[in-house]
Design a protein that fits this description.
Chain lengths: 264, 365
């Protein structure tokens, strides 16, 4: 779509678009205001602006510990989801028959099933496997639910991949492993990167599964925020939310940048 | 660049490939001599690309075998065949520089760095692209991309080179230039080239030998001159250059000639020996437009035919006319401009003449 195309859009359409954007985005901005409150509970600042809750966030063992835990869990589960999702998408693409279509659809189940149902299932299963309240348990659950994002973005990238490049690679003497590593993956890298970013964001702010399978030992950031709201309405939570929003927006911009570089 | 040792003939024996109920390649047997430039020529859907893909190893034949010298390669995977290939649209790796594209086949064979460097340079030198070594494929023109694809396909001294319509994406002038260059390269490296095209002019001007395919079958193969002068079927006569088809019934044999009739006309055609059709049979004679001349009325000649001009076009070096005749309907005639005297006019009546040796007997279909 070209930039000049916007010139033809009527004032009505444009106003409506802005209204919708405001409706979606403005509630989020409240968090920023609340995070600099000078009071002791979740509220808008009245007397003045205070950064005490940011200081609190950066000095609290609990909050920093949860951030660290969430980061480790998000990184590891993203790597697993990335590898599994990419290989699954490539496999389906190479087969491209009815069975592979079915598999691709099946891969989307984790985001189609309501999370709470899914989390309950994982919980039951994890009891038997003794994975409750362990890093491994949360990482596996997050990796599985992150796979669909990778499968979707990598499949999209593969749809635009010229199959003759694979043939050329084989013809030039590269085996399947070399073809995958030297030709296919570098050419679908923007799709893989997008998938990784989405899988990371998914794990980073996932609450429902964490509520079910994590307990005392593993306390992810969204879990701590949930407890914060339930128990003492600590405005530190708003500061955390503000940081999370900025981080997510940052990752999305990286994603947009990678995609635009591909089409350039 | 030297040609690899053990450079051998390629023997294709009775290969067949079906896609569902569609027979893409139907019982094709062909031997490709070492060092020759063989063109697979045919309209789209004739099976020529499928045959090439079978040689490359991307398509498995349902029946038949392919052998390189004495070695059976029918089921050898493509990466172990050592056949260079220039793909339609070139299939250059977009994320690698020109150098890395050409180095790819050597890198995957784990050659030492110094050897890779030297061989890539000499391959790029061969196609005159040393200066563009660090560019990405998308920064090159179509012709340059085509030359990178060639260098990449030849750098590992393959047993033979497969080319799938390598010039089809280029404009006419560049095409002619690259045709010359490909021929020069073929003479220089002495590698076997198997070239797929649907362009008959390209096939005629470049090949040592042409194999004509239609509906999955190999119709005829031979040198360009052989095929042009002695097409076995009406399809070959019409596909390789243009032909008029004179259909009639054999009336008598007269010396080396046969006499056949069509409409009110009687015509002579030189056919001797075993190919001579019996009296009373139907025959088809292919007659090239350029073998017909315009003669003054009443000229004594083996064959004369009168008609009126219904269409004419000027092509610089020649006039191409369509003459409507009683015996054969529309007849295409090509007259060198310098011989025609006055420009023709629509509706003008004239007499056409040709020798008894001018036509070629062809099988129908």
């Amino acid at each position: 779509m070209s930039q000049t195309g916007f010139g033809n859009i009527s004032v009505m359409t444009r106003s409506l678009a802005w209204v919708i954007i405001c409706f979606l985005v403005l509630p989020i901005t409240v968090v920023f205001a609340v995070s600099v409150t000078d009071k002791h509970y979740l509220s808008l600042p009245s007397e003045g602006v205070s950064f005490q809750y940011y200081t609190n966030l950066l000095t609290s063992r609990e909050w920093l510990g949860s951030i660290g835990q969430s980061f480790i869990i998000a990184c590891v589960s993203t790597l697993i989801a990335g590898a599994a999702g990419t290989l699954c998408a490539i496999g389906c693409w190479r087969l491209s028959n009815r069975a592979s279509e079915a598999i691709r659809l099946l891969m989307l189940v984790p985001i189609m099933v309501p999370t709470i149902v899914y989390a309950l299932g994982v919980y039951q299963f994890w009891i038997d496997l003794r994975l409750l309240d362990t890093y491994t348990g949360v990482i596996i659950a997050h990796a599985v639910t992150g796979v669909p994002y990778v499968v979707i973005t990598v499949s999209t990238a593969l749809a635009g991949f010229d199959q003759r490049l694979e043939q050329a690679s084989l013809n030039l003497g590269a085996n399947m492993e070399q073809t995958l590593r030297l030709v296919i993956i570098p050419n679908i890298m923007p799709g893989i990167a997008s998938g990784l970013i989405f899988a990371f964001i998914h794990s980073w702010d996932e609450l429902v599964i964490a509520l079910f399978v994590a307990g005392r030992g593993v306390f992810t950031l969204p879990r701590r925020m949930w407890d914060g709201i339930n128990e003492h309405l600590d405005p530190t939570m708003a500061a955390v939310a503000a940081v999370l929003i900025l981080l997510t927006v940052g990752l999305l911009f990286i994603d947009i940048y990678i995609r635009s570089r591909k089409t350039a | 660049m030297s040609v690899s040792e053990g450079h051998r003939n390629l023997n294709i024996t009775g290969v067949e490939k079906r896609f569902g109920s569609f027979k893409a390649v139907d019982n094709v047997s062909l031997t490709v001599e070492r060092g020759e430039f063989l063109t697979l020529l045919g309209p789209s859907g004739s099976g020529k690309t499928t045959l090439l893909m079978m040689i490359a190893g991307f398509v498995q034949p349902d029946k038949g075998s392919i052998a390189l010298g004495a070695e059976q390669i029918t089921h050898l995977p493509p990466e172990r065949r050592d056949f260079g290939m220039v793909f339609q649209g070139y299939a250059l790796f977009p994320h690698l520089s020109v150098f890395d594209n050409v180095a790819f086949p050597l890198k995957v064979r784990k050659k030492p760095r110094a050897e890779i460097e030297e061989r890539v340079r000499s391959a790029l030198d061969l196609v005159q692209l040393t200066a563009q070594m660090d560019r990405l494929p998308r920064q090159l023109s179509g012709g340059q991309q085509q030359r990178v694809a060639l260098a990449r396909a030849m750098v590992f001294t393959p047993h033979l080179l497969l080319l799938d319509e390598p010039l089809s994406a280029l404009d006419k002038k560049l095409r002619a230039e690259l045709q010359e260059e490909l021929k020069r390269l073929h003479r220089k490296v002495g590698l076997t080239f198997i070239y797929v095209t649907h362009d008959q002019d390209e096939a005629l001007s470049m090949s040592d030998r042409i194999a004509i395919m239609r509906d999955g079958q190999l119709i005829q193969h031979g040198s360009p001159a052989e095929l042009y002068e002695n097409p076995s079927t009406a399809f070959v006569a019409d596909f390789l250059g243009k032909s008029n088809f004179l259909r009639g019934r054999v009336e008598t044999h007269a010396g080396d000639d046969i006499v056949f009739t069509s409409g009110r006309g009687r015509f002579r055609q030189r056919i001797s020996g075993a190919k001579r059709p019996p009296v009373g049979s139907e025959i088809a004679i292919a007659l090239r437009p350029e073998k017909i001349s315009i003669v003054p009325p009443g000229t004594e000649m083996a064959n004369t035919l009168t008609g009126t001009v219904t269409e004419w076009n000027y092509f610089g070096s020649e006039f191409r006319l369509v003459v409507s005749t009683q015996s054969f309907g529309s007849v295409a005639v090509a007259i060198p401009t310098w011989k025609s005297g006055v420009p023709p006019e629509i509706g003008q009546s004239l007499t056409l003449g040709w020798d008894a040796q001018a036509g070629m007997q062809v099988a129908e279909s």
